[in-house]
Amino acid sequence: MAEMKVRDVAIPRTTNVTSCIQKPEAGGRFELKQSMVQLLHTNGEFTGLSHEDPTVHIQNFLEISDTYTPAGVNVDYVRLT
């Protein structure tokens, strides 16, 4: 077996890379409204600055998405959309 060069194993390959996140079925009719996008953008924007708390950012996102989930629609579907 031929020896591999360091660069052959050190550089990650991006071919055939897929996400490990599997989006669930909606379970009902769902349409993402512009008002929801604006609300999340206004209240949920996280830029990673030192004074920002990622835990608070996630809590805000979950609270906003919980108020918008239509009956019969999977909440994870809404959050991942």
Are there runs of 5+ residues with pLDDT below 50, and where? none
* Principal-axes shape call: flat
What's the story with the biggest beta sheet? none
Measured between the Cα atoms of the first and last residue, the distance is 47 Å
Rg over C-alpha atoms, rounded to the nearest angstrom: 19 Å
Number of helical stretches of at least 4 residues: 4
What letter string, H or E per element, gives the SSE order? HHHH
Question: How is this structure best described in words?
Answer:
The structure is a single chain. The protein is an all-alpha fold and 81 residues long. It has a domain at 52-81. 46% of the residues lie in helices and 0% in strands. It has four helices and no strands. The chain has helices spanning 6-10, 34-44, 54-68, 75-80. Helix 2 packs antiparallel against helix 3 (54-68). This is Putative ovule protein. It comes from Solanum chacoense.
Short description:
46% of the residues lie in helices and 0% in strands. By secondary structure, the chain is mostly helical.
Topology:
Blueprint: H1 6-10, H2 34-44, H3 54-68, H4 75-80
Features:
81 residues; mainly alpha; 4 helices; 0% strand
